[in-house]
Structures are given as C-alpha cells and as structure tokens.
Amino acid sequence: MAIPTEAAQRIAYYKAKEGVGVLAPKGWHCFGAYGSSGATLYVSPDPINSADVLSSSWKGFAGPVVQISLEYGGTSGRFAVAKTIARAFPARKDFVEGVIAEGIEPASSFPYGPYPVDTLKYRGENVVEFSTPAQVEGLGTDSRLQKNDTPISGAAILIGEEPDLVRVWERLPSGDSELSQLIIQQTEREAARLRN
Description:
- The protein is of the alpha+beta class.
- It contains five helices and nine strands; from the N terminus they run αββββαβααββββα.
- The strands form two sheets. A seven-stranded antiparallel β-sheet has the order 3-4-5-9-8-7-6, with helices on both faces. Strands 1-2 form a two-stranded antiparallel ribbon.
C-alpha cells in the first residue's frame, strides 16, 4: 500500500497472534483477544489493562482508539454478523432471518435499516464505510468505543458465503485525523485477501 512519506513515519502495523492486523499511530499500545466467535485487536495511546477489557463491567474506550474485529458467521459470532447485516447489507437479509429463526435472540435484537444519523458509503456489495457523529449511537458504537465528543469512522466488510465479518472502528486525536482513511483502506485490502 502506498503511503505518503510523512504519514508512513507516524503509522505502524499492529497484529495479535490470532485475527487480523490494523494500522494505527506509531507508539500506541495494543491488546488482542480471541475465542470461538472471532478475534479482536485494540490499539490505544494509553496502556490497555487486559483485566478491564475482559471484564463484563468494562464500558469501553472513552478516548482515541482503533479496534478491528474478525467475527465468524458460523459460530457464536453469527449474532454480531447478523446485526451488522441487518443495519448495512439488506441483500444478505436471508442470513439475518436464519439467525432469528434459531430462537436464541429475539427478532428485536436485529433492527433492519441504517442508524438514522450514520453516513454510509458503499465500496461494493460487501463493503461499507461508515461515520457515526459525536454523542450518538450508530455503527461506530457497535464496538468497544464509547460515544463522546468525537465522531467514529470505520468500515464493515463481509467475507465469503457464510459470511464472516471484518470491522474496523477508529477515533483518532485531531492531529492524526489524516491517518483515518489509510487505516480504513488497509483494512479493506487485508479483508480482500481473506476472501481469496
């Protein structure tokens, strides 16, 4: 991936042993988690306490962060995959209907249609880039990012027939905002390799 020289000096690639990697500002801290549903990597300018991240009472990141997740549609990750499909990929509605038919979660857990405040830009039938404004719920807060005074940008990419789902969310400090599109583009490239 071609990156302008100035940006390349300020960005690094982070990857846990399991899952996918992501670009984020150089010198940040990362923590990866994985299980039967998939794998997630968090990258933050502040040290990440694993006990907090793995706690059921942790509310998420309040400040700058990059999060990337790979969720498997054939495992317990299917619930997160179905929720994203319902919000952003209407052509894949059959997958959502199949998950609802299992009767494990009610149909109300899978609202159809985009969040009213989100901006969606489709980059193909299986790729959508999104932006969630500050202080509101949207695809940006369907993550471990708490809402605050800064918008959240990201992308959701479906992979395969089952499907699996790669999602990236980023909220960067104002001085690093030009790195946002590089992070999203790299994620889309990496997800395209997973499809092959």
